[in-house]
Amino acid sequence: MLATNVESSPLLGSRALESVAPGVHTVGLQGNSLAVETDEGLLIVDSGPSPHLVRPVLDQLREQTGKSVRWIVYSHGHLGYNYGVPGFLDAAAERGEPRPTVIAHANVVHRYRRYLETAGLQNHINARQFRRPRADFPRTPPLTFPDQTYTESLTLGSTGRTVRLLWAPSETDDVTAVWLPRERILYASAAVISGIPNIGTPMRTLRDPVRWADTLDRLAALRPALVIPEFGPVIREGAAGQLTATAAALRWLRQAVVERLNQGRGVDDIVHDLDYPAELFDVPWMRENYGHREYIVRDIARSETGWWDGNPTHLHPARPADAAAIRAEAITDRQAVLDTATRLRDTGRIQDALHVIDLLALAPGDDPHVVRARQLKGDLCALRKEEISSYVSRSCYEVATDAG
Q1: In terms of Cα–Cα distance, which of 341, 240, 248, 260 is closest to 286?
Q2: Which of 112, 122, 235, 383 falls 20 to 30 Å from 333 in CA-CA distance?
Q3: pTM > 0.90: yes or no
């Protein structure tokens, strides 16, 4: 997740250094990026989106702790979380301090290689999701590969406070949670945010909700006294219960979707059929402020089915522009399409109006009715954006609004 210059994500917090517990601080480089004091120096989790943000944070940490940075740990391998590593390395070199060791789960290496291969695609996705120009994103991501990796767990610190790095597959398969056993403090990393788990986001690869649930149960079994999420306020009361309740919601979704798939139903039908239990979903930590429950439904279905929606027309479709042109050509009363979409809009049926307007809006060319349809679609997307709480959905509608 990256900061935006259009509408700040509801999950992003302050960039100021805040002490969560003695010797444990959030530093705001990327969400609740972390600094933990140990006898051997500071452990930093996530270095942030740019080296130029590092120096002010380092100055605060030196004033607060008097310690140098010993380790930099990657919470996971998403782009932008650790572009700031060179800032830490340069600062250490300038002060004649040992180079901090960069540590990540082994799967980060695989992810970074994939991101280098698909850099153009990642920029297209990020520009849409975070509502920023593609030019804001580097053509080649400035990745710093880890010096050291682990697979299941790794303990850091030989005296005094020890820190355990735990593999916590959830949003990605390379997530690292940080556990302070003596204090029972858990940095839950990308496994926990202040909202519904970010599963099934429209432009990303599959995320396994059952694996995520298993991770949450495993973290809850540590009986943390305090949980620091990747984004959002620190959980100081009922932390373990929140983790297990989230896991239960994810397992409920899996069971409900699979039951309907077994009945031969399609995902679009399933999305509208589910009656979500209030005790699992109408709770503060399941707010749809970034992701959405429907995203999770679609990812579960996608994990068990192919890409085809069951409509024979879509099995070997024409090129999208050609199909749209043919549909528009078949409409003898194009004004009726515009009038129907407008009527639906005026009666508050925005999604229905979008289905209608696509009969014309997707067609190529500069026919006046088609041009008006594109403009109307942009207006509809702006209205639909206001109906949705999910940041990601709102991003998608905003891009469509600009296109319209």
Answers
A1: 248
A2: 383
A3: yes
